[in-house]
Design goal:
Blueprint lengths: L1 H32 L4 E5 L6 E5 H10 L7 H13 L5 H17 L4 H22 L12
Antiparallel strand pairs: 1-2
Helix pairs in contact: 3-4
Organism: Phaseolus vulgaris
Protein name: DUF1677 family protein
InterPro entries: DUF1677_pln
Length: 143
């Protein structure tokens, strides 16, 4: 009788362990199923490529007349529309795309030139902030 109870306990323990293992695998599959795949999207204006999720690509395309544009170009297009509300989004996109194509046509390495230009813009922006008396300082923490 005692031996049968021990066998039963072991069987229940084994089944419990299998159920826990199965539950953990199922939970992991659900978590991994929620991770979105990324794909490469190419900017319709400047041609830069970024890795994005499908959801993000669709959101950007909805905002820009079905075109995917990088963050830098999207800001330029939004600024153009904001400056002149009579300019339609598609016209602003076309104008910026034409500008980018002309810019890229005059450069041997367009992406490198764009990166260098952005660096110069950031430098000028920092210089303007510093000249206006805005000081950036680092704080120290004491233990």
């Amino acid at each position: 009788m005692e031996q049968n109870q021990q066998k039963l306990r072991k069987a229940v323990s084994d089944v419990s362990r299998e159920i826990d293992r199965y539950y953990n695998e199922l939970k992991l599959e659900r978590q991994l199923g929620g991770i979105e795949e990324v794909e490469q999207a190419e900017c319709k204006c400047c041609g830069l490529k970024e890795e994005c999720t499908e959801v993000y690509i669709r959101e950007v395309e909805e905002c820009f007349c079905g075109n995917w544009v990088c963050g830098l170009c999207s800001e330029a297009v939004k600024e153009r529309v904001g400056r002149s509300p009579t300019v339609a989004m598609q016209d602003a996109l076309n104008s910026h795309r034409d500008f980018c194509q002309e810019y890229n046509a005059t450069r041997l390495n367009p992406q490198l030139s764009l990166t260098h230009s952005m660096r110069e813009i950031a430098k000028r922006s920092l210089e303007n902030r510093n000249s206006k008396g805005l000081k950036l300082s680092r704080t120290t923490s004491y233990p």
